[in-house]
Amino acid sequence: MKAKWLTGILSGVLAVGLIQPAAFAEEEQTIEDEIIYDVLIDRFFNKQIENDFEVDAQNPAAFNGGDFGGVIEQLQHVKDMGFTLLSIGSVFATDTYDGKKVLDYRQLERHFGTEEELKEVVEKTHEFDLKLMVDVPTQQVSSNHIWAAEHPQWFSENEEGTLALDTSNPEVQDELIAAMGDFIRTYQVDGLRLSDADQLDPQFIEKFSEAMKEIRDVYLLNDVEMEETAGFDAMVLPGAEETLRESYKNFGADSTGLGELVESSEGKLIQIDSLLGSRFVSDVVAERGFPPTRMRVIFSQLLTMPGIPVVQYGSETAMNGITPQESHQILNLSVDEELIEHISDLNSLRNSSEALRTGETEIILEEPNWLVYKRSNEEETWIVAINNSAETKTINLPADVIGSDKELRGLFESDIIRQEANGDYRITLDRELGETFHVIDETGFNKAYIAALAVLYLVFMAFLWIVWRKGKQRKANRNTTK
């Protein structure tokens, strides 16, 4: 399988010191080291029938049966794809499968499972060397929320009949901080994501962040595009999803803004899908494109550019959907694994390379549907080339970009590019492909390999000589006997 092939290549590269993973393996990780996999518990995997209360898998608006046991069942899948942080959505008692219409922040949703089962989810997640994050919805909670009857002044009513907590109210702030503080202490999760964060009071966000981090060093993230706000460890990059989707929904699409996006994405949450709306595949289908190819190309950029990638469950199976309910299908892994392997390969590469996670970025070439950029730090250099056109593309990179006496080794198409007589490095890429080249010192002839072959040859010749001598001796002995 290709995933095993690339894993072997990366292992070999690591073995000879071409990639330096020490910072990732030994130093404490930051949010910029994470690759986030975003799921909804109810739509991920149904493991236990004991909590299937009035479940209707045929109704996209109803609970479909996913539970904490199902999350545990699929942790190996998440780990194998190379993700480092699992986001499981809201887990609190709720009226709806997506967890948004919260009833009580101090009770878990019975469809999902018990306190003991959520603790097991956290424990097993950590055993897989993954982190776990949950959502905290506050702006579309149930009209039957436990606080509503006693404290109606804490809420305002939304048009669809749900309630929004007034996070500028000090009493609301204190209650939310107390409830989430107890939640973190009990379950030891690694991150919280504030839903509808653009509707929250900025002072509450900062106060909430400080209070949570005093209890445990958790990540605090947002979920929507908004102005910069203190308290978040990372925020969604405005315009990133739209720019990526418009650029890659078909070959030859308008790619204006990709270079600027790459240069501005450092430290930001970047994604091509959202559990709040439609899937990228719906854009591809509307353009009559081929989703697997489009997904491979767009992931080639998402997982090699600066920023913190957020990948929604089902992206690895090219899940389609326009409305949220259509986009929240049960995960089906009975599919062609080629896209899953491609995501796994890219994530493995990103996890192995500090330069691809936090290194400097330089745009080398930005033309319509032809993007080339460099990711580097003091230890390593990568060249990422993405051809999103309908024709083969070529670029000559001068020595002042790459250096002299180097090689560019493509990790996906297996190309080896060496310096030409004029000093340039010539990259040629077929249509609708993304490639990541590792820049290393030119290897030339492998002297150790040649020496080993010479020794093997001498040993083999000596073996033949010994066989010949023994044969000659046996023949002489037979003649003497006669």
Automatic annotation (TrEMBL):
SMART domains in alphabetical order: Aamy
Cleaved signal peptide residues: 1-25
Domain Glycosyl hydrolase family 13 catalytic, residue spans: 38-350
InterPro entries (UniProt xref): Alpha-amylase-like_C, GH, GH13_cat_dom, Glyco_hydro_b
GO biological process, one term: carbohydrate metabolic process
Membrane-spanning intervals of the chain: 448-468
GO MF annotation terms: metal ion binding
Keywords: Membrane, Metal-binding, Signal, Transmembrane, Transmembrane helix
Cofactor (UniProt): Ca(2+)
Cited Gene3D superfamilies: Glycosidases, Golgi alpha-mannosidase II
Protein name, per record: Neopullulanase
Organism classification: Bacteria, Bacillati, Bacillota, Bacilli, Bacillales
